[in-house]
Amino acid sequence: MGSIQEQHSTDQQALLDAQLELWHSTFAFIKSMALKSAMQLRIADAIHHHGGTATITQIATKVQLHPSKIPCMSRLMRVLTVTGIFSIAKHPSAEDADSVYGLTPWIMHDWVDSECVTILKNCKKAIPPRNEGGKWGFKYATE
Q1: How far, in whole angstroms, is CA 60 from its chain's centroid?
Q2: d(CA 128, CA 138)
Q3: How far is residue 143's CA from residue 130's CA, in Å, rounded to a whole number?
Q4: Same domain, yes or no, for 28 and 66?
Q5: Given this model, what pLDDT does residue 55 score?
Q6: Same structural domain, 129 and 96
Q7: C-alpha to C-alpha distance for 125 and 34, rounded to whole angstroms
Q8: pLDDT (tens digit per residue) in 92-121
Q9: Judging by DSSP bridges, how do beta strands 53-55 and 100-103 pair with one another?
Q10: Are residues 32 and 98 in the same domain?
């Protein structure tokens, strides 16, 4: 009887591990799509334009986003702040409805292009190849 319980426990653990892997994959996709959206909208540039911090309204105005899309922008910024791409410089108070978002050191906005390329190439070197357990493959346009 003990072996049936052990088998059941092992099966449950395997199922939980599989579900966890699916959740990790799902959230990795969401994070990458959020980052892609931020890059396409040039959110970092909009925040930088406002002196390094900006509200959702300021960001939406700078990136020329229709006001009806501001709730979507709020959700996007929530994902980007949770993942550490941007920071929340000031949480909204009762009279002030907008959070103030800031740049983080992860954003290579203030670096010259040659330094950004050096940083990214060093990141590539630090990640082992896929056949050695690495999970990423990078290809530069200049290669």
Answers
A1: 19
A2: 11
A3: 18
A4: yes
A5: 92
A6: no
A7: 25
A8: 664 556 789 998 876 665 667 787 778 777
A9: antiparallel
A10: yes
CATH number of the domain encompassing residue 90: 1.10.10.10
How far apart, in whole angstroms, are the C-alpha atoms of residue 57 and residue 94?
17
- Structural domain span for residue 76: 2-105
Contact predicate 100/88, CB 8 Å: yes
Q: Model's pTM, two decimal places?
A: 0.61
Encoded tokens for 87: 């920071």
Find the helix packing angle between 70-82 and 2-41, rounded to 10°: 120
Asked whether residue 16 falls in the same domain as residue 74, the answer is yes
Question: Distance (Å, rounded) from C-alpha 106 to C-alpha 82?
Answer: 13
Q: Tell me the pLDDT tens digit for each residue of 19-28.
A: 888 888 887 8
Structural tokens at position 106: 């992860």
Asked if the model's pLDDT at residue 61 lies above 60, the reply is: yes
Q: Which residue has the tokens 């990141």?
A: 123
